[in-house]
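Data deposition worksheet. Section B asks for the primary sequence of the deposited chain exactly as it was used as input, without tags or linkers unless they were present during the calculation. Section C holds the resulting structure in token form. Section D is free text for depositor observations; keep each observation to a single sentence. Incomplete worksheets are returned to the depositor.
Section A, Depositor: J.P.
Section B:
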Amino acid sequence: MKNLVKVLPLVAVLTLTGCKKDQKADQLIEDTNVVETPAVATQEELVKEAQSNPLTTLALSESNFEFGKVKKGEHVQHVYEVTNTGKNPLIISQVKPGCGCTAPDYTKDPILPGQKGSITLKFDSSNFDGLVNKQAEVFANVEKAPIVITFSADVQPK
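Section C:
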């Protein structure tokens, strides 16, 4: 039944566009029947992958940030500065937030010794009231991975 619901709108579109054979449409029909489940790596696997490169050290501008008062529904973000203090390139392999309300962005290229990169955490306050504490795990080629960075916000009514 689910496949029928997916295919009916496509059949309507194909009917409206004429009888000419359309290879892209055939591919679309085939693709709608494929359901891919993303592989979920365990924390141990993430640490192993991050540490597969030569280890280095890093310094964070801060490991905790306080947004203070935030209006409910507001989207706020903070940039954590990362400095490679070691002798090998720093590679951030993943930043894994603790909840879906937080979206990470980070420097994807290797950070050379002495250079800086960044980790940005974007927070959507729509589903919260009052004091909120959130965290993200940073997986990188450092000895004590993951590194935990946190933030807090006091979500106020609109």
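Section D:
Residues 1-37 have pLDDT under 50 and may be disordered.
Helices lie at 2-17, 23-32, 43-50.
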